Amino acid sequence: MLNNRNDIICAVATGNGGSISIVRVSGEGAFSILKKCFSPIKRIKNAYQHGRMMYGNVYDANGETLDEAMAVCFYAPSSYTTEDVFEIQMHGGSMSAQAVLKTIMALGARMAEPGEFTRRAFLNGRIDLSEAEAVMGIVGASSQMARRASVRQLKGGVSAGIGKAREELLGLVALISAATDFPEEIDEDVTAARVKEKSQKVIQFLKSASDKRHARILRQGASVVLAGLPNVGKSSVMNALLSCERAIVTDIPGTTRDVLTESVELNGIKLSLSDTAGLRDTEDTVEKIGVQRAKDALENADVVLYVLDAAREMTDEERENLSKMDDRYIVLLNKSDLESVVEFENAVTISAKTGEGVKELTDRIIEKIGIDDVNEDMMTLPRHIECANRAIDALARAIQWIDSAMPLDFAANDLREALEALGDITGESMNESVIDRVFQDFCVGK
Ligand code: GDP
Known about the structure:
flat; 7-stranded mixed β-sheet; alpha/beta; 13 strands
């Protein structure tokens, strides 16, 4: 970070195309800039109060009115960055915001770097690193559940669990140094046993908090793949789930030649629904490619909906496919509006045509995904999981030293490494390259 933290920074905080644009300015002395380019209408008493919207005009250095606008001041330390901050809301479209920004820069502010407002909130101690990342999580959330997870993170959900783990480890490091300093008074074996037990507990906590599957599903959504022979009603089931007619429904077998993917949100979880080509042996080259893609999609799916046509006997191919099913599978007996000739244990009976059973199916899909929305400690970001894994490895090494009866100092070194890794999650270790990496993905104005 080359730019000075004492500069007054400014940026357009809103995206293109909205009906309002917001310019945000932060830094000591910001309000004197505001007073030079904005005048509230005369009727306002006690203008420039904290958090109070003022209606007025923005104008440039020559006194030319740039726009009608609203302005609001947030006094340090009660602002997003903890510095003096003001925002001007004006009419949308980029011209007005650009003109205002230019005026503000001419009055002494400089353009903010990507994420610099949030970075200041972090450097000034208002939020920690994982909370800063949560801001981006909210902006980029692809489902309501992802948004909820980011809000929890912003409220310190991840930090609290990590903070507790760090405290434990700091306690152990202190214990080891006491045991080495006062060998007569503190029994080394007892200390070693305690360090081992507590380290194992921290490993356990970190492992459950950094579950990769959970994090991926929260962030990107779960993949649900429809499989089954041609004509059993896969496209129709997909349509029923999407409640729209996007997939092409046809009664000529084998015409869905590729994997068709659509997104839908169920109970706040984003699902990518893929309708695959019928899984059947074929000589047709184009269809073969489709079948291969279908197999790949099946392998990577979180949930497989295997569709059977309940109105006709199961084929040998279906029996064989089902003999290979694992616990990701839900078997559907489709076409329940027709006379049924198939039974299958634990299957969901459904009619894509009438909509019967669709609700039960969605419940079963959610159950199968098995994501616990309320677990406060869950990490969602790959960076956090990476740090947690580094800590887990270091703790495992500490335990190994203890198991091979090496001096406790060896274990202490690894405990310190684990502490450092966990400190990278919240930013407490103030590792510049980690901090830079986090903020490089932010947008200007955040
Ligand atoms: P896919 O090849 O597995 O994707 O099957 P489609 O969705 O294209 O459906 C094949 C045929 O079965 C079409 O004629 C659909 O109208 C029909 N079909 C699908 N679902 C049902 C259902 O629940 N009841 C009835 N009666 N027909 C259905």
